[in-house]
Design a protein that fits this description.
The protein is built from eleven helices and eight strands. α4 runs parallel beside α5, α5 crosses α7 and α9 packs parallel to α11. It is globular.
Length: about 240
């Protein structure tokens, strides 16, 4: 598996263990990281993580922890027990909450294994400027994302989840080693679905994203394996450019 394909995360947004396992089996050797979100984890629990590991995949646990610092720290400790590769917290939970998550992961994994990458969700890619204003946030989307990314960096997180449209700004303010995970990826010609701030895989990498989260363009493709290979080929061209 090449470096570019290792940067693609398949969002396992399916409604059963069987559907998830079927997709992981098909894509083994093509996709290396799988996102387990709220739907699948609520349905299947930790055994979905065990299944992905059994097929030599890595797990991006996307449960977007957002609670008081102590509760989030305890949740992160539990995630560490399952050896997840990456997990999410909500940046809007504040610096103290994010820092508690980082500390809990480091303490839990000390002397045994590397802690999971903790990435903070900034502004969901399904949200527009109007959606932010509805919540009482008058700042432009880019400003809100930039502010939350800076807060996440101060808290010690590994990076953030953000649209590639904001990636150049984050990269400039947070540095080259700060990870940017980009959802809302849609290959050319794909339907945006419920996403508002979408980009193509090539555009995302060019903008500075480190990992791409891709779901429906692969899951709903007539041939998911070929769809994943096409996306990998597209980002390989960017990597070699």
């Amino acid at each position: 598996m090449n470096r570019q394909s290792e940067k693609i995360i398949l969002a396992l947004d399916v409604d059963s263990f069987e559907a998830a396992e079927d997709m992981v089996k098909k894509l083994s050797g093509v996709i290396g990281i799988y996102k387990v979100g709220m739907q699948l984890f609520t349905r299947c629990g930790p055994r979905i993580i065990e299944m992905i590991h059994a097929h030599r995949g890595r797990v991006f646990l996307d449960l977007k922890f957002h609670d008081i610092p102590n509760t989030v720290a305890r949740a992160v400790e539990e995630a560490c027990k399952h050896n997840v590769f990456m997990l999410t917290v909500h940046a809007q939970g504040g610096k103290k909450m994010m820092a508690s998550a980082v500390t809990a992961a480091a303490d839990m994994c000390r002397g045994t294994s590397p802690p999971p990458l903790i990435v903070a969700v900034t502004v969901l890619t399904s949200m527009s400027q109007e959606d932010l204003q509805e919540l009482g946030i008058d700042a432009p989307v880019q400003s809100a994302v930039s502010h939350l990314a800076a807060l996440a960096r101060q808290a010690g997180t590994s990076g953030v989840v953000a649209s590639a449209k904001e990636a150049p700004l984050i990269r400039a303010s947070c540095g080259k080693d700060f990870i940017i995970v980009t959802p809302g990826i849609r290959p050319q010609g794909s339907s945006p679905g419920d996403q508002k701030r979408t980009v193509t895989p090539a555009e995302a990498f060019t903008a500075g994203a480190d990992y791409l989260v891709i779901g429906r363009p692969v899951l709903e493709a007539p041939d998911p394996v070929q769809a994943a290979r096409d996306i990998t080929a597209e980002v390989q061209r960017v990597g070699h450019a």
